[in-house]
Design a protein that fits this description.
mainly beta, Immunoglobulin-like, 5-stranded antiparallel sheet, single chain, 5-stranded mixed sheet, 10 strands
Length: 141
């Protein structure tokens, strides 16, 4: 799935992800699409501030950190996932418990420039709605 977006703020924003059909109880159900969502997010920095880091956080309930039992993660089963990366940040760090966060570092996205993120979201107990919090980080003054 390719998503193109423009962020006009350096504050966190929330992407609401909704299923378009029935959601089976477990990802191994043949209707679940194997329980994963590969996303490429092409993001224009329209905030007029450079981004020096960028964090993503998965939430099954808005405002509540994801926990191990919800089955939602950034490809938690694969330590060296090739499905996670960025065109502007050289490294990423995954924090898996008690939340699911992905922090991209060692790069910069200047104002009016774009960055592409590749994310693999896995969900072993799919829900019809979940949230992807996106938090661009600006330099400390």
């Amino acid at each position: 799935m390719l998503l193109k977006q423009e962020l006009y703020t350096a504050a966190a924003v929330v992407l609401v992800i909704r299923a378009t059909g029935d959601v089976p109880r477990y990802a191994y159900d043949e209707r679940a699409g194997a329980g994963y969502l590969f996303m490429e997010i092409d993001t224009l920095n329209a905030s007029n501030l450079p981004w020096v880091e960028f964090e993503f956080e998965l939430q099954e309930m808005r405002g509540v950190s994801s926990v191990y039992g919800d089955g939602l993660s950034f490809d938690q089963r694969n330590a060296g996932s090739d499905h996670i990366g960025s065109s502007a940040f050289a490294v990423h760090d995954r924090k898996l418990e008690p939340y699911d966060r992905l922090l991209f570092q060692s790069g910069t996205v200047n104002a009016a420039h774009s960055v592409t993120f590749r994310l693999l979201i896995t969900d072993l107990t799919p829900k019809p709605v979940f949230y992807l919090v996106q938090d661009p980080r600006i330099p400390a003054s």
